[in-house]
């Protein structure tokens, strides 16, 4: 909110010679943070000039400049009728009245102007933009005085005095809960709280009562949100015989400019001026285009409205509209309530009779409508934060007076449809401010502060019964009042007490396990990523999931961040593969990524979540129903690899990642947690039908994950390189199977014994099953078993394969003898034969 000091001084007593910085510092004490101080810091000569002619000159650096001859009246060089000035803006044209900073002037920010040679010319000054003058942020082009109501300014006139550039304007940031401060009235009241200066309410004007011949208004909101009507007060007044084509007076236009608004026309300028002054947005209708009665209602399905910005909008049934009775009772929407008026009833130069409207709208309705239509107007900005519900008739009285004074009109009938329900008072323990802030406040001090901000306070035993003022709809609970006491008395009075952290037990076992898994995968050469948990329904088709696959059953978001990704992920692979694709598209060809996170797996007949009321605490049944509606969210870990696993060099050709690396990642996770995994062939989309391993915990039912090479058709659909491999594991299952305490195996000082076995089995027998049988058969002497060769051919027979394993054995207390090795070897072979039918090759 921008407030010129002269305007602020009309509402609150400012000290003589006070600066914008001083005012901003005082306002910061009560929570209105300084954004900037505009104006001031500018010294002349800065004058009005007229562009006599110009030449467009393209430059070799690609820019285009304009060599202008500008008439600045008595400031022209002796013997010449103009000054030559180089201008880079493309909106300057012959005949424009512009603001010229002559050599010797200093613009805001300490920017000194001098005559200098540039682009082959001696530029004798500068044609200024709004930003360069310090009165706005627009730097798109130069300021043309005709566009802001100064088309009759004389050439050579002092532009500093004309535009009020010597006056400072304070800009403060207003938080969403303090909408009353989006006005000079509100800022002045806050300055009074900060300094004790006398406050004069600009809205304290005489309000005429409603008249029988006032325009009929009906409040007909049949679908209120949150049980509250969309409009509980609608005030209006007719002003007849207005010369709407008349120009707004210069002081009014200047104040609008200083506040950051562009003057447009008398009726619009007056309503904007009053809105800035007291905080009540107004709207002016061309009375001749309206057909009473006026009806405030919700939009009908399929209803459309062309707003003042020329956009034809499709209205939503929750949108509040102001309608007239053209075509039937309340049939035609003429304004999007609290946001923007309609083009059909716009005030034009031909308008003579104006209907001024000031209503009190529900903040939630206005907020939703403005966001729904992406139409955040100055009016909506105030209404969605809460506007004083007593202010409407006063604001209309102020606007009607300005129209009569500057447009020659005469005030007419008055309407005030008032269906307000008094808000209940707030009951607060008198010691609540002391208990919350840690500062000892006497009840009398609390009462004085609350009374000073406009509340009515009555003691009731140990409590205070507080009725907030009409301009503070944000004060609805005791803690809100505590904040006011702390704010007015000064936040710096609240002591800083650092709480003592309670003693803890450190990380839980599950947290330690998760960190160990992440560390192990990073040491395995993978990079951890964090992807969004939202996916597109088309992803299921790209992964070639069967129609009845439970991974297709996803939770759909009611308000997704992107309409293209409205579902919660049921697997980590879709967003992880999307991250991989993004990296590959940026030139990374050898990539290994992993992610740990939750997936959402709703049941087939999951109950819908109830929507309990927000006015009371949900019942135990409501909470139980909410808990039952929350879908299971298991923790998963997934990894994807593409490109080289071992990079090529001068001494080696390197190795491309394959399905064995995906299985190795799964075993790395399991071994970190102290869990054994068994791998068997499987067909499970999106993996390759012949290169997919099903991973399970021996002795436990079910599957904990899959690993292998992804289906080539999936890779083509997702735009990923061929032979990309992936792993996904149910980390919750693995964590549940992990032992709480893992004891280190003693290191034996005795030598290692080596045994190699070649076993012949059917081709369908998994090598992992044979290895598990060898491990169980060899017993405690076996340290490791590793598959190092697979052979198929005529030597082993059709449908058979030879698996060669390296066994490493060691005893903890002695050197193994030949008899020990023979016994362990025979037991291992016997176990493999019993489970898988394996026989020694060559036997």
Structure report:
The protein is 26% helix and 25% strand. It has 843 residues and is of the alpha+beta class. It has 6 domains: 2-39 and 169-195, Phenylalanyl-tRNA Synthetase, Chain B, domain 1; 46-163, Nucleic acid-binding proteins (OB fold (Dihydrolipoamide Acetyltransferase, E2P)), CATH 2.40.50; 217-418, Phenylalanyl-tRNA Synthetase, Chain B, domain 3 (3-Layer(bba) Sandwich), CATH 3.50.40; 426-489, 2-Layer Sandwich (Phenylalanyl-tRNA Synthetase, Chain B, domain 1); 509-610 and 619-737, 2-Layer Sandwich (BirA Bifunctional Protein, domain 2), CATH 3.30.930.10; 753-840, Alpha-Beta Plaits (2-Layer Sandwich), CATH 3.30.70.380. A 7-stranded mixed β-sheet has the order 27-30-31-37-36-35-34, with helices on both faces. It has a 5-stranded antiparallel β-sheet with strand order 5-4-3-6-11, with no helix packed on it. A 5-stranded mixed β-sheet has the order 13-16-19-20-21. A hairpin with a 2-residue loop joins strand 25 and strand 26 (463-467). Helix 7 (266-278) runs antiparallel to helix 10. The longest helix has 19 residues, at 818-836. It is elongated and about 120 Å long. It starts with a strand and ends with a strand. The relative contact order is 0.06. The mean pLDDT is 91.
């Amino acid at each position: 909110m921008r407030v010129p000091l002269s305007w602020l001084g009309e509402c609150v007593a400012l000290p003589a010679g006070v600066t914008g910085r001083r005012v901003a510092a005082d306002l910061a004490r009560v929570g209105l943070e300084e954004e900037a101080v505009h104006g001031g810091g500018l010294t002349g000569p800065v004058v009005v000039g007229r562009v006599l002619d110009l030449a467009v000159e393209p430059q070799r650096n690609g820019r285009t400049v304009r060599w202008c001859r500008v008439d600045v009246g008595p400031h022209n060089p002796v013997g010449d009728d103009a000054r030559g000035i180089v201008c880079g803006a493309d909106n300057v044209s012959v005949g424009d009245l512009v603001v010229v900073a002559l050599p010797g002037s200093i613009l805001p920010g300490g920017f000194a102007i001098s005559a200098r040679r540039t682009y082959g010319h001696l530029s004798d000054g500068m044609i200024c933009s709004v930003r360069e003058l310090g009165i706005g942020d627009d730097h798109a082009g130069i300021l043309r005085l005709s566009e802001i109501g100064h088309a009759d300014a004389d050439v050579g006139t002092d532009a500093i005095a004309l535009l009020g550039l010597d006056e400072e304007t304070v800009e403060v940031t207003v938080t969403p809960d303090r909408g009353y401060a989006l006005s000079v009235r509100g800022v002045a009241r806050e300055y009074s709280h900060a300094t004790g200066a006398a406050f004069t309410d600009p809205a304290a004007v005489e309000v005429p009562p409603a008249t029988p011949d006032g325009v009929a208004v009906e409040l007909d909101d049949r679908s209120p949100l949150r049980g509250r009507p969309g409009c509980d007060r609608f005030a209006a007044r007719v002003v007849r015989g207005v010369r709407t084509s008349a120009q707004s007076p210069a002081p009014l236009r200047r104040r609008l400019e200083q506040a950051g608004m562009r003057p447009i026309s008398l009726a619009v300028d007056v309503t904007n001026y009053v809105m800035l002054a007291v905080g009540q947005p107004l709207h002016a209708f061309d009375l001749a285009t309206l057909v009473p009665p006026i009806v405030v209602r919700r939009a009908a399905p399929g209803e459309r409205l062309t707003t003042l910005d020329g956009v034809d909008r499709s209205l939503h049934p929750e949108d509040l509209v102001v309608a007239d009775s053209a075509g039937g009772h309340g049939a035609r929407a003429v304004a999007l309530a609290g946001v923007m008026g309609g083009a059909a009833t716009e005030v034009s130069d031909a308008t003579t009779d104006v209907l001024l409207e000031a209503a009190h709208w529900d903040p939630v309705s206005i907020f939703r409508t403005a966001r729904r239509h992406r139409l955040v107007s100055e009016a909506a900005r105030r209404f969605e934060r809460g506007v004083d519900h007593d202010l409407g008739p006063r604001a209309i009285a102020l606007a009607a007076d300005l129209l009569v004074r500057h447009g020659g009109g005469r005030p007419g009938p008055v309407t005030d449809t008032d269906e307000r329900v008094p808000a209940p008072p707030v009951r607060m323990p008198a010691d609540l401010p002391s208990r919350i802030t840690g500062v000892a406040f006497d009840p009398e001090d609390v009462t004085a502060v609350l009374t000073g901000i406009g509340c009515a306070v009555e003691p009731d035993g140990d409590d205070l019964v507080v009725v907030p003022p009409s301009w503070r709809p944000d004060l609805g609970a005791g803690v809100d009042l505590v904040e006011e006491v702390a704010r007015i008395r000064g936040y710096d009075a609240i002591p800083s007490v650092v709480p003592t952290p309670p003693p803890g037990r450190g990380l839980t076992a599950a947290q330690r396990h998760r960190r160990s898994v992440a560390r192990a995968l990073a040491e395995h050469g993978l990079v951890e990523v964090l992807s969004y948990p939202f996916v597109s329904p088309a992803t299921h088709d790209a992964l070639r999931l069967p129609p009845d696959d439970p991974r297709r059953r996803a939770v759909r978001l009611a308000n997704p961040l992107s309409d293209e990704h409205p579902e919660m992920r049921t697997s980590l692979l879709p967003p992880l593969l999307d991250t991989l694709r993004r990296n590959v598209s940026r030139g990374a060809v050898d990539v290994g990524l992993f992610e740990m996170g939750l997936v959402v797996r709703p049941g087939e007949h999951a109950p819908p979540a109830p929507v309990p009321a927000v006015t009371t605490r949900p019942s135990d049944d409501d909470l139980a129903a909410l808990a039952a509606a929350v879908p299971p969210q298991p923790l998963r870990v997934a990894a994807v690899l593409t490109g080289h696993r071992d990079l090529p060099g001068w001494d080696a050709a390197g190795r491309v990642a394959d399905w064995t690396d995906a299985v190795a990642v799964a075993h790395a996770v399991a071994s970190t947690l102290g869990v054994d995994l068994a791998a068997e062939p499987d067909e499970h989309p999106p993996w390759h039908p012949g290169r997919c391993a099903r991973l399970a915990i021996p002795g436990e039912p079910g599957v904990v994950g899959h690993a292998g090479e992804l289906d080539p058709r999936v890779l083509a659909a997702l735009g990923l390189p061929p032979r990309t491999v992936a792993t996904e594991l149910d980390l919750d299952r693995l964590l549940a199977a992990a032992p709480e305490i893992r004891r280190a195996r003693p290191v034996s000082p005795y030598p290692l014994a080596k045994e190699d076995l070649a076993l012949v089995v059917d081709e369908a027998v998994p090598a992992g099953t044979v290895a598990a049988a060898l491990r169980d058969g060899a017993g405690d002497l076996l340290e490791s078993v590793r598959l190092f060769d697979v052979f198929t051919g005529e030597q082993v027979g059709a449908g058979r394969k030879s698996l060669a394993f390296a066994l490493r054995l060691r005893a903890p207390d002695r050197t193994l003898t030949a008899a020990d090795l023979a016994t362990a070897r025979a037991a291992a072979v016997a176990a493999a034969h019993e489970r898988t039918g394996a026989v020694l090759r060559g036997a």
